[in-house]
Amino acid sequence: MQAPKNLFSSAPKGAAKPAPAPFLPMSREEMSKLGWDSCDIILITGDAYIDHPSFGMALVGRVLEAQGYRVGIISQPDWLSAEGFRALGKPNLYFGITSGNMDSMVNRYTADRKIRSDDAYTAGGEPNKRPDRAVTVYAQRAREAYPDTVIVIGSIEASLRRIAHYDYWSDTVKRSVLPDSKADILLFGNAERALVDLTHRLAAGESVKNIRDLRGTSFMVPRGWKPAEDWSEVNSTRIDVPGKIEPHPDPYEMKMKEPEACGTGEAKPEVQPIRIMSREERQAQMKELREKSVVRLPSYEQVKADPVMYAHTSRVFHLESNPGNARALVQAHGERDVWLTPPPIPLEMDEMDGVYDLPYARAPHPAYGKAKIPAWDMIRFSVNIMRGCFGGCTFCSITEHEGRIIQSRSEPSILREIELIRDKTKGFTGTISDLGGPTANMYRLACKDKKIEESCRRLSCVYPTICSNLGTDHSKLISLYRKAREIPGVKKILITSGVRYDLAVRSPEYVKELVTHHVSGLLKIAPEHSEEGTLSKMMKPGMGSYDRFKELFDKYSKEAGKEQYLIPYFIAAHPGCTDEDMLNLAIWLKKNNFKLDQVQTFTPTPMAMATTMYHTRKNPLHKVTEDSEVVETARSGKIRTLHKAFLRFHDPANWPILREALARMGRTDLIGSGDQCLVPRWETAASGGMAAGQRQKQATGGKMERSIPYAPPRKPTAPGRPMRRGTQLPVKSGRK
C-alpha cells in the first residue's frame, strides 16, 4: 500500500494563507464582513453549527479553510423549498452535504419507530428541524437551487448507504443513496484525504465526472465501466460461494493427453510441472492482481429479492474493508453501476494533530444566542483522542464508517486542547468530562507488524479472542492520563467513553490508574448480554472478561478508599437472542443486584452485520448458503417489548407481560416474593393506571383485599371489558 501525501502538504504557507474566520459564515452579512463575494464550498448540515472538532461540519470546514478555500455553512435549512439553499449564493466549486453527526433516521426515530420528542443537535433540543433521509433531501434541493453545481455527499448517513441496504424504518431494501440523491460523488468514512484531493482537482478545473481514482469515494458509472483495460472483474459469488460448494481442481493431478492418431489409442499421462513461487513473489503477484481488480457484488435487484444474496453481499463487503488489501467493489443498479473505490488510508498522527489543532472557535455559532444545544453541553469539556475501532461489534456502525485501524493524536496535541478548554470554554470549572473516542482504551493500540495488518482479513481483532498480533500495551494511555492531571487548573479528569474491558484486564496497571483517578463513582461498560449464543452474534466477549474486570475494579476501588460501581449496558432484542436468553439475563441482573434505569433495544442500522441477520435470518460471520445457520430474530413489537421488559423486570409497568411470559415458559417459580423471583404475584398501585387494588376497591364497594394471587390467563380479555381476578392486565404497546 503506497503511502499517500501528507494531508496538509498542499496547504498555502505564510502570507499566502488567508486568515481564519472567527466562525465559518452562515449569512451574506458575515460573508461581507470577511470581504467575500462568494464561497468556494458551501457545507449543508442537519445539525446546529458548533465550531468544534467533535462536530463533522466544523472539522471538515476548518480543514478546507486551512487549504486556502472560502467555506460557508448552511445549517438546518428549510427543506420544503430550494430558497434556503440559496442563502449564501452559488458555490464556486461544490455543495458538500451531510445529515449531521448522526444518521437522520436514528436521530428522528426511536427503536420502536416512534418519532422522538427532541433533537440533541438542535438549539433548544427542538425536534423536526431536519427531514427523514436528510442527505437525499438536501442534495435534491441543492440541485434544484443551482442545477449545474457539483454535489458532494458524505457523513455517516451517506457512508452507511453507499450500496443497496436494508432500511429498518420502511422494512425494505433500498438502493444506494447515490441514484436517489443525484449526487455527483459520495465520500465515505473519515474523508479528509479524499475531500482535500477532490477540492484541489476541482479548483484546477478538472471535471468531477473524470475523478474516479480517489480512495474512499463512490460514484455511478455506465454498466461495465472500468478505470482501464487491464482491470479485471471478479464475481463475488466465486470468492465466497453462496450456494453449493464445488471442489477446487487439484493442481497436482495428472492431466491426460488426447488419444494419439495412431498406435494403441490409449491416453498417456503427462505430469504438469509445478513452479513453486517464493512467499515474496506470491505476495507481490497477489497485490498487483488485487490493485487492478474489482469485485462485482450481486445487483440491487438480486439482494432485494433474495435474502441469501443480501447476506452474501454483506459478508463480502465486510471482508473487503481493510485499506491494506481491499479491492474496489461494484454493484449494478438497473442499467448503471455503483462503483466503490477501496477504503481511505488512515491519517498519520501528525495529520490527526493538524486536523484537531485548527483554529476552532470552540463554541456554537453566535446566531443561536443563549439557546442550549444538548450535544454541545455534553461534549464541551471532553477531548477526542482517537478514532476508529477494531472491536467489530456487529450491531455498531463505527467499523463501517471509521474503520478498524486506530488513528490517534499525539500526547502534546491532546494536552494543548485541554489547555484550550481551560482558557477558552465558558463555564469550565476544572473538570474534563472525557478523554476518549469510540472507546476509552484503544489509544495507540495497533497490530505489531504493519505487513500483517495490511494482509489481515479478520472482522475483529478481539473476537473470538484477542489476536496475538495485537499490541495491548496501555502504557502510553497511562502516561497521557498522568500528564493531563498535572495541567494547572485541571482538578479532575473523568473517563466516560466505554471501556473495552477485555483489553483493560491485559493491563492491571491501567485499571488501577483508571479506577483510582478517573472514575467519579460510576463507570459505564458494555457487556451487552450474558448469554453466549447472543454474544456470538454480537462478536462480544463472554462474561468471564467482565468478571475479571470487576474483580480488578473492586480491588482498586477499595485500595483507593472509594465506593464506586460499574454500570453495565445491555441490548434487548438483538438478532440471535431468544426469550430464554433474555430471561437468563434478567436472572443475572437480579443475582448481581442491578436495576437498570435506561436500556437499549436493538436498532438495525444500514449495512451493520447484525442488521443483515435481522433482515435475512442468516449469519454473515460465516459462509452463507441456503441451508446455513438460521438466526432467529425478535421482529414483532410484542416480542421486542418483552425483551426490553426483561431488562427492567423491577418496573411494575412490566410485571403483567413478564408474568404472562414466565407462565408460558414454565418458569412460574420466578413469580412471587422469594429472593430469586423477578416479579411479585400481585399488582400494586405503583404499576400505574388502574392497578389491581383499585379494581378491587371498585368491585367490593370500597373494601380492600390484601392481595390478588396470580394465575395464568385462560383466554384474552376483550378491550374495555372489566377484568376478573387472575387474568392479566392489558398491555399497552410501544415505548413506555
Structural class: alpha/beta
- Average predicted confidence as pLDDT: 89
Binned strand content: 5-15%
Write the CATH homologous superfamily of the largest domain. Answer: tm_1862 like domain
Number of domains: 3
CATH topology of the largest domain: the name is pyruvate-formate lyase- activating enzyme
Biggest sheet: strands, sense, closure?
10 strands, mixed
Count, helices:
26
| Biggest sheet: strand arrangement | 3-1-4-5-8-9-15-14-13-10
Tell how many strands the DSSP assignment holds. Answer: 25
Radius of gyration: 29 Å
Distance between the termini: 52 Å
Label the CATH architecture of the largest domain.
Alpha-Beta Horseshoe
Helical residue percent band: 25-40%
Give the overall shape, derived from the CA principal axes.
Answer: globular
CATH class of the largest domain equals Alpha Beta
Low-confidence stretches: 244-264, 686-736
Summarize the structure.
This protein has 736 residues and is of the alpha/beta class.
Could you walk me through the main structural features you see in this protein, from its secondary elements to its overall organization?
By secondary structure, this protein is α/β, with parallel strands linked by helices. The protein folds into three domains: 192 residues, Rossmann fold; 270 residues, pyruvate-formate lyase- activating enzyme, CATH 3.80.30.20; 86 residues, no CATH class. It has 26 helices and 25 strands. A ten-stranded mixed β-sheet has the order 3-1-4-5-8-9-15-14-13-10, with helices on both faces. Strands 23-24-25 form a three-stranded parallel β-sheet. Helix 22 links the parallel strand 24 and strand 25. Helix 22 packs parallel to helix 24.
